[in-house]
Amino acid sequence: MEKHLIFMDIDGTLVDRDQQISPRTRSVVTELQQEGHEFYVATGRKYSSAYEMAKKLTDATQVIASNGSVYSINETLHKKRLSDAALEFIYQTMSVHDLPMFFFGEHTIFYTQQLPSYLQKNDQSRIGNSEEDFLFIDSLETLMAISQRIVNGIVIADEREAELEQVRKILEESHLLSVSSSHPNNLELIPLGVNKATAIQAVQNNLVIPQKNIISFGDGMNDLEMLQASGISVAMGNAVAELKKHAKFITDTNVEDGIANFLIDYFS
Q1: What is the mean pLDDT of residues 239-256?
Q2: 83: which residues sit within 8 A by CB, 6+ positions away?
Q3: Angle between helices 23-34 and 258-267 in degrees, nearest 10
Q4: pLDDT in tens, 25-78
Q5: Residue 249 β-bridge partners
Q6: Which of 44, 107, 123, 244 has its CA 20 to 30 A from that of 53?
Q7: Distances (CA, A) of 94 to 22, 100, 210
Q8: Is 182 left (phi over 0), alpha (psi -120 to 50) or beta?
Q9: Domain limits of the chain?
Q10: Residues 163-219: pLDDT tens digits?
Q11: Does 121 score more than 70 pLDDT?
Q12: CB atoms within 10 A of CB 66
């Protein structure tokens, strides 16, 4: 079979509720890599966390992180970042609405309020284990002083979905950044014109693999562009309903080996 390029989201797609990759998925991916197919994780996580999870899958798996802001091609890292103007606008807007902000470098999470439970230091499966994982941002001046280190961000606010939708419109109308969402309780803050699909296109161009041979797996709306850029788009059984409308295929859930099951059927 012709060489394929396969991309998979991590949370809600590759890993289960306990942040584990099933042995069956690892076995299937390993076998397909040995046959010459290329695999990437494609996630909103910061690069170090995404890299760690990619290597838990297989040593040959490469990385798209920060919703396309950071990606690797042949071990070379490519990066785009939120502009200073975007960061200033985000900070001012979120301060007015008293919403918590989280910004990501390659290895560090910068935050303005209390960290959510799944970003706490004891959840090493998501954040890695560097001593410099977290830095508190106490002012706009502090944020701008480290702006060159920030590639993307996220706003998380449980039970404030209506307000988040209002804020999303404000951010989008600024034309300073791209905005997506991986869950109803968040806004993904991404450099303008960047998403998982822009990174996929760069990888695709380098490997010279046609779109018809690109497979992608996702579960959230920040996976939409990735699925649209793929000839074979697959929504997980646990994906949000809106994403399923845009997928050509729906597989089993992330706790039912959805990725492995689809790949076995497709390549058999």
Answers
A1: 97
A2: 176, 177, 191, 192
A3: 30
A4: 999 999 999 999 999 999 999 999 999 999 999 999 999 999 999 999 988 999
A5: 234
A6: 244
A7: 38, 7, 41
A8: alpha
A9: 5-79+195-267, 84-191
A10: 999 999 999 999 999 999 988 899 999 999 999 999 999 999 999 999 999 999 999
A11: no
A12: 34
Write down the pLDDT at residue 124. Answer: 47
pTM comes to 0.89
Residues in the chain: 268
What pLDDT, in 10s, does the model give residues 67-101?
Answer: 999 999 988 999 999 999 999 999 999 999 999 99
Which CATH fold would you assign to the domain 5-79+195-267?
Rossmann fold (3.40.50)
Q: What H or E segment, with its residue span, contains residue 226?
A: helix 224-228
- Identical fold, 5-79+195-267 and 84-191: no
Question: Could you identify the residue written with the tokens 């449980």?
Answer: 158
Sequence-distant (6+) residues with CB within 8 A of 226 are 7, 9, 42, 195, 196, 197, 200, 216, 218
Per the rule left: phi > 0, alpha: psi between -120 and 50, beta: everything else, 222 is alpha
Second CATH level (architecture) for the domain 84-191: 2-Layer Sandwich (3.30)
Query: Are 82 and 151 in contact, with CB atoms under 8 Å apart?
Result: yes
* 187 and 179 Cβ atoms separated by less than 8 Å: yes
User: First CA to last CA across the chain, in angstroms?
Assistant: 10
Which tokens sit at 106?
Answer: 């390659």
- 171 Rama class: left (phi>0) / alpha (psi -120 to 50) / beta: alpha
Contact 62/6 with Cβ under 8 angstroms?
Answer: no
**142 with 112: CB under 8 angstroms?**
no
In this structure, are residues 221 and 182 in contact, taking their beta carbons and an 8 Å threshold?
yes
